[in-house]
Amino acid sequence: xxxxVPYIKYLKAIRAQFIGSVLCAAxxxxxxxxxxxxxxxxxxxxxxxxxxxxxxxxxxxxxxAALVPxxxxxRALAAFFNSYLVSLCGVRVLEQVRLDFFQRLQALPxxxxxxxxxxxxxSRGLADTNQLQYTLTNVGNEIFKQPATLLFxxxxxxxxxxxxxxxxxxxxxxASVPLAVFPIRYVGKHILxxxxxxxxxxxxxxxxxSENLSATKEIRAFGLEERETNRFRTAVQSLFHVQMKIVKYxxxxxxxxxxxxxxxxxxxxxxxxxxxIPWTSFLFIVGAIYFAxxxxxxxxxxxxxxxxxxxxxxRIEEILNAPLEIDxxxxxxxxxxxxxxxxxxxxxxxxKTDTHVLKDVTIDLPPGTVCALVGPSGAGKSTFANLxxxxxxxxxxxxxxxxxxxxxMKVADLRRNIALVSQDPVLFNDTIYNNLLLGRAxxxxxxVEQAAKDAFAHDFILSQPNGYxxxxxxxxxxLSGGQKQRVALARAFLRNxxxxxxxxxxxxxxxxxxxxxxxxLQKLVVGKTVLIIAHRFSTIRDASKILxxxxxxxxxxxxHAQLYGTSPLYKTLYDRQQxxxxxxxx
Length: 586
Ligand SMILES: Nc1ncnc2c1ncn2[C@@H]1O[C@H](COP(=O)(O)OP(=O)(O)OP(=O)(O)O)[C@@H](O)[C@H]1O
Prior knowledge:
It is a multi-pass membrane protein. The chain is α/β, with parallel strands linked by helices.
């Protein structure tokens, strides 16, 4: 239970409901453990079956009989309110945990996402939080009710045994109680291990599903349907296997505890026979034994739930406690609009191992430089560009903008000064207008439309069924590649940041889109420091500075005319690209 303590803070806002649920649980415990037994065995049965019972009026009989449903009614109300309020608390705590989980995902560095698959993260965010919610409400439901019931049942037993001559020896029947601890511990241990397997197997299933859904076209094109189904089947079968192990252990517990409690009752029966215990006392004590074992059985079951919840919590906390790595400094330098002088000073960088993919890179790009990054595949161009918005932290050296080390400013301040247009821009499943607005929240309608005009997107947007209010579909699926690119460029116009990072699309666009995009780009780059991961020779040639990457180093830099004569690698890359046409990568 200690593991859940840090989350108690989330109950603050609903303190009254939580206290209400505990009080209802206590009332339930008193009724189940004592009142029910007492009313039935000590009041109703003796009154109805005693020698003078024949003389009672119908009203008197009915009065005694009505006591039974009256007690059950109060117990039912206590159970209902306990369950309702506890569920409310559990759901509220989980709402916060889910939010924390999501917020953490927003703050974690990109490196983290390279280490975790999206299926695994989805499974932690959905299946594990669901399991935790189930545990919290289920365990919460019983955690006060059952111990209260046990306490009052034991109290009733001791009270009765001590007030009936010789009956105290009947308490020996409780000697079998400790026996119940063994199966509870045994099952709990196994369930914890299996629950961990179950949750991670759920991650595998979710991973297969999300990978499959993200590659629907490739699967059909390569005829991979059967292979995919088989892969999914294997994952689901493993899940089934682990699930059944859990069912086996959970189902084992209840009957075992019932059997142990029957041993106690059998012992009581033998003793009561020899000790001549009155039947009313005997029934009361057997009732109390039953009501004492029932909570033990339930506590065993909630122990299992708890173990499953703990394994889910472990997986959620792995994310909640994952180091942020890239965080704001304690005393950030105040940054408003930067000019855009980017400088790398002896920068080395490795993704995870010691293998550096950037090695001792030093370069100074004055504001307004349009800089093309070229080099063979894997040479480090994207990595270089990704260090500027501080998507990753350098291993050695430092990156500065306007002379300020990136680590000295707030991450949000830095990124507000950068616009990013990626190769395959992602649009959210929202209207075109709202997708544009992501460039700069708070922009006016006129500004948004002007940005769309600058990006040559305005006309195609107006020709959509609902103009700017047309929904773009999941990941912008209802727009063509060229249209998505223009929306992304319009977003960059709207942002109007001093630094622009552009990953040029490698796939061919139709010539009309291509021409629009080139014209938009020419306008967009004016007055900005631009890093273009360039794949078209026209872009490369027009750049004011070209950085040639090879195996993580900048081996040459300068304008096209100079590099063409001095850098053999650049000459080869450029000639190859020019020969192969606009679509071939550098
Ligand atoms: N997230 C990552 N995790 C681990 N290694 C990575 C990651 N991203 C890139 N790398 C590795 O870093 C090296 C440089 O990659 P980078 O993407 O910067 O090259 P690039 O020059 O942009 O290549 P391309 O032109 O093919 O996009 C490569 O060896 C690549 O395998």
